[in-house]
Amino acid sequence: MKNSIIIIVLVFISAFAKVKAQTTHLLDTIYANDTKNVALFFPEPIRQGITGSDNFVFTYNREKEQYFGLLQATPGKESNLLVVNRNGSIFSYIVRYKKQLSKLNYFIPLSNSIGNEKPIVKNSVLVESSEELVDNSTYYYQKFCSYLLNRKQRIARIKKRNEGIILTVENIVFDKDELYFVIEIENNSTLDYDLNFLNLSIETRQKGKRKSLQRLYQEPIYKHNLPSKIKENEMARFVYVLPKFSLSDDRRAILELNEKDGERNIEMKLSHRYINNPN
User: Fold this and answer.
1) Percent of the chain surpassing pLDDT 90
2) Closest CA to 270 of 187, 146, 181
3) CA-based, 20 to 30 A from 15: which of 110, 157, 263, 266?
4) What is Dmax (Cα atoms) for the chain?
């Protein structure tokens, strides 16, 4: 009887160890740097890819799903990369910065998947999934805006000033279905600048005998690091995210900077050439 109990316990421990070994998944590490593109090829087209830190950027075609994405990194702490394929397969990796790379291409088999998304059945689950999608979008905007602010890319010298206040559009970037406006406000005056609003509108020139201008306000999807005050001799850089749009020759974008309880206002005209040819 005693021997039987021992055998049962040993069988139980062995079975538990096997289950634990099957469920424990050690994440592989992928190395990247800021001078080369590291290509990741997946068994199914990429639907979503997110990194856990600003010093890692994973880019992929968000308009037309493709099988590969590109990873770049700047020096910093290690992070993680989560990728979801079109069929719901989930892949997770540790990502690290490495100055010298020995591998630039990773061909990832389906067996590397750590699991699959849960099927949506009930309405309550559908609601939760929609909320999660919104959170994921906001998270992506945060990460991509941070990435753009760390870059030194400029679209042109688009700048206007008024009484020591300088408004600059540094960059306009197209990604997925959105336009990202990287904006800077510099306060070279001796007074703090309290921001009342910064609006972007589309202005249309009405043709005919009575020529007039009509403006249509464009509501941003997301605003990143928008300040309420710029102190004297300081500057603020932030990003406006708007749904993608294009302009004909008879239209242009207008950026209106308005000071709260002040008159240091700026109105900047953005040609259709900048909007239609973003980075």
Assistant:
1) 48
2) 181
3) 110
4) 106
Q: State the amino acid at position 8 in one-letter form.
A: I
Residue 175 to residue 230: CA distance in whole angstroms: 29
Greater pLDDT, 128 or 140:
140
- The residue with tokens 């999807």 is 221
User: Which two tokens mark 248?
Assistant: 């004909």
What domains are there in the chain, each with its CATH number?
Answer: 24-117 (2.60.40), 158-276 (2.60.40.1150)
Q: 53: pLDDT confidence band, cut at 50, 70 and 90?
A: confident
Beta carbons within 10 angstroms of residue 92's beta carbon: 15
